[in-house]
Every structure is written in structure tokens, then in C-alpha cells.
TrEMBL record:
<comment type="similarity">
    <text>Belongs to the flagella basal body rod proteins family.</text>
</comment>
<feature type="domain" description="Flagellar basal body rod protein N-terminal">
    <location>
        <begin position="5"/>
        <end position="35"/>
    </location>
</feature>
<protein>
    <submittedName>
        <fullName>Flagellar hook-basal body protein</fullName>
    </submittedName>
</protein>
<dbReference type="InterPro" id="IPR037925">
    <property type="entry name" value="FlgE/F/G-like"/>
</dbReference>
<dbReference type="InterPro" id="IPR019776">
    <property type="entry name" value="Flagellar_basal_body_rod_CS"/>
</dbReference>
<keyword id="KW-0969">Cilium</keyword>
<dbReference type="GO" id="GO:0071978">
    <property type="term" value="P:bacterial-type flagellum-dependent swarming motility"/>
</dbReference>
<dbReference type="InterPro" id="IPR010930">
    <property type="entry name" value="Flg_bb/hook_C_dom"/>
</dbReference>
<dbReference type="GO" id="GO:0009425">
    <property type="term" value="C:bacterial-type flagellum basal body"/>
</dbReference>
<dbReference type="InterPro" id="IPR001444">
    <property type="entry name" value="Flag_bb_rod_N"/>
</dbReference>
<dbReference type="InterPro" id="IPR020013">
    <property type="entry name" value="Flagellar_FlgE/F/G"/>
</dbReference>
<dbReference type="InterPro" id="IPR053967">
    <property type="entry name" value="LlgE_F_G-like_D1"/>
</dbReference>
<dbReference type="Pfam" id="PF00460">
    <property type="entry name" value="Flg_bb_rod"/>
</dbReference>
<feature type="domain" description="Flagellar basal-body/hook protein C-terminal">
    <location>
        <begin position="217"/>
        <end position="260"/>
    </location>
</feature>
<dbReference type="Pfam" id="PF22692">
    <property type="entry name" value="LlgE_F_G_D1"/>
</dbReference>
<keyword id="KW-0966">Cell projection</keyword>
<dbReference type="Pfam" id="PF06429">
    <property type="entry name" value="Flg_bbr_C"/>
</dbReference>
Length: 267
């Protein structure tokens, strides 16, 4: 019976974590470039039950041979294995601002591949983002809302020489003093990236290889890819599953109470 306690409790804990991930998605539904988190559930290893016994052989010395009869398997619960972002393309929102940039993915050779803007955090480390809500700082550099430098294809901060610049569909920034190629990075398996705060991802990326197509859209922003209706439906399902496990746990608790207080009582 105690195994039933653990199984029901693990179900409640896993659905609580699913609910937390879905609630975070809803909270970021208006966050530019946000990628919705997806949770994957996995069952604990199954146990194979067998009935152990022995069989008497009708011989002179009454030989007993051990034998076992398979009963079946039993599951020991479920847990949230991992939470991975969904890197599907979000819808575009036209803003008209020169600094706003949207990155549209085209043909990708890898099923889980994704493209990102390359930025540099406060520690000088490379990070990747889909949030193109950029600004121009007092020194003329293109930066994120957190003040992180947006990098070019050579890994250097992009100097815009003010707000008079245009960005071509292939990511070429044109200013009065010349042109600079935006640093667009490609990740063959975006599931390997680690999600950080401020819409940043950490991991290994490469230059855009041949065969990968994309388009940079100036004056647009990529909206969050959270599906509000689907997320609300998933939240209701998670809540119902949590309640189901809760009722199972309560039933086990009542059975245990009866076993302690009633069974074996001397009349």
C-alpha cells in the first residue's frame, strides 16, 4: 500500500511542475521573442513481480526444486524528465522602429535547428536571443534592452553611427560610414541550449551554414509563440490530473487509517 502512496504523490508533484511551466508561459505571452516551455513526463523504471516458490518432485528423497511464476509489472510513478523550449516561429508585429528587428527562419536542414541573434553579456560571454527589441546606446552601439552588445559576424559590437541606418533582408546593416553584417548564429539542435533570464540562451552555436535560409525584417518584432487557448486547455488537464492523484492519495490514507484503527481490534 505504501507504494501506492509514492505513486500518487509523484503524480501530484509532476503535474504541479507542469502547471508551473504552463503558468510561466502565460505570464510571458506578451514577451518579445519568448519561446514556450514544454515539459516531458517519464515513468520511473517498472518492477517485474514474480511469485517465488518450490515444487516437490516425487522421488525417493523428496527433492524440492525452486520455481517462479511471473505475475506482471508494476509502475512506481512518474516525474518531469526535462523542460525544453519550443523554437517554432512566432508571429510578427510591425512597430516601425528602426532598431526593432525580427528574424524569420527559412529552410533548415536539421529538424530541431534554430537561428538566433548573437549578443555579448556583461561578462563578455556569447549568448543567443530571438528578442530583436534593440536600442542604440549613447555611443552608437546596437544593444539589447539590458544593455548587452549585439554582435556582428566577426564577434564585434555593431556600431550604427546613430539612428540613420537600414537593415537588408540578409542582415546587412548599412550606415553612412559603411556596412556591417549582423551576427546570425545557427544551432543544429536547439534543445541543447540552456534558457537563461533576459530572453537569452546559452550553448554552442555556429555560423550559418550553406543551405540555411533566413530573412531579417527591420521595423518588426517576433511575438511570443505561446498559444493561449492551448495553454489554458493544458492547464485544465494538469489540474484535473492533479486532483485525480489527490483523490487516490486520500483513498489510500483512509484505507491506512482503517487498517490502524479497526483491523485487529479486540471486541
Amino acid at each position: 500500500m505504501l507504494r501506492g502512496f509514492y505513486t500518487a504523490a509523484s503524480g501530484m508533484m509532476s503535474q504541479q511542475r507542469v502547471q508551473e511551466a504552463l503558468a510561466n508561459n502565460i505570464a510571458n505571452i506578451n514577451t518579445i521573442g519568448y519561446k514556450a516551455d514544454q515539459t516531458t513526463l517519464r515513468a520511473f523504471p517498472e518492477l517485474l513481480l514474480q511469485q517465488m516458490g518450490s515444487k516437490e518432485i516425487p522421488t525417493k528423497h523428496r527433492l524440492n526444486l525452486p520455481n517462479s511464476n511471473p505475475i506482471g509489472s508494476i509502475n512506481t510513478g512518474v516525474y518531469v524528465q526535462e523542460t525544453v523550449p519550443n523554437f517554432s516561429q512566432g508571429d510578427l508585429n510591425e512597430t516601425g522602429k528602426v532598431e526593432d528587428v525580427a528574424l524569420l527562419q527559412g529552410q533548415l536542414p536539421d529538424e530541431n535547428g534554430a537561428l538566433f541573434f548573437t549578443v555579448q553579456n556583461e561578462d563578455g560571454e556569447l549568448r543567443y536571443t530571438r528578442n530583436g527589441n534593440f536600442n542604440v546606446d549613447g555611443n552608437g552601439f546596437l544593444v539589447t534592452n539590458q544593455g548587452y552588445y549585439v554582435l556582428d559576424d566577426a564577434g564585434n559590437p555593431i556600431q550604427t553611427d546613430g539612428l540613420e541606418f537600414t537593415i537588408t533582408p540578409d542582415g546587412l546593416i548599412q550606415t553612412a560610414n559603411g556596412t556591417t553584417q549582423m551576427g546570425i548564429s545557427y544551432v543544429p539542435n536547439a534543445d541543447d541550449l540552456t534558457k537563461e533570464g533576459n530572453d537569452l540562451f546559452n550553448g554552442e552555436a555556429m555560423a550559418v551554414p550553406a543551405g540555411v535560409t533566413y530573412r531579417v525584417q527591420q521595423g518588426f518584432l517576433e511575438k511570443s509563440n505561446v498559444d493561449a487557448l492551448q495553454t489554458m486547455t493544458d492547464m485544465m488537464n494538469a489540474y484535473r490530473l492533479f486532483e485525480t492523484n489527490q483523490r487516490v492519495l486520500r483513498a489510500y490514507d483512509e484505507s491506512m487509517g482503517k487498517a490502524v484503527s479497526e483491523i485487529g481490534r479486540i471486541g
